[in-house]
Design brief:
This protein is mostly helical. 88% of the residues lie in helices and 0% in strands.
Amino acid sequence: MPAEVDHSAHTEVAAEHAPGPELLGLAPYQWVSISMAVLLLIAFSVAKVHKTIAGGLDNKIAAIRQNLDEAKALRAEAEALRAEYAAKIASAEKDAEAMLANARTEADSIVAKAEADATAAIARREKMASDKIAAAERAAVDDLRAQAAKVSAAAAAAIIADRHDAAADSALADKVIAAI
C-alpha cells in the first residue's frame, strides 16, 4: 500500500493562497441569484424583448397563414381548371364520336346512293342496248322484207312477163281499172 500522505498540510497551504468563497459577505449562490434577477429585469422590463419576439412570431404566423390560404385558393382554382378541362376533353371525345358516327352514316348513304345510281345506270344501258338490238332486228326484218319484196316483185315480173303477153296485160289492166 502506498504510504499515507498528510493532507492537512496541503490544505493549509491552499487555503492561504485562495480567496474566500464569500465576496461582500454573500455566498456564491446568492450572487448567481442576484445576477439572474438583474438579467431577467433587463430582459423583460427595460427592453421588452418578449413583446418584440411575440410580435415577430405573430407576424410570421400571419404570413404563413396567408401563404396557406393562397395555396388553398390556388389548389381549388387548379382543381376547378382540371375539372373544366376534363369536361372539355369528354365533350370533345363525344363530339368526335358523333362526328365519326355521322361520317359513317353519310358514307353508308353515299355508298347506297352510288349503288342505286349504278343499278339505275346499268338498267338504262341494258334498256338502251335492248332497244338498239330491237331496232336493229326491226331494221334487219324490214330490210329482209324489202329485199324479199324486191325479189318477189322481180320474180313476179319475170313470171308475168313470161306468161302474159300484151293482150293479156291490157285485159288485166282494164279489169283493175273497172274495179276501181
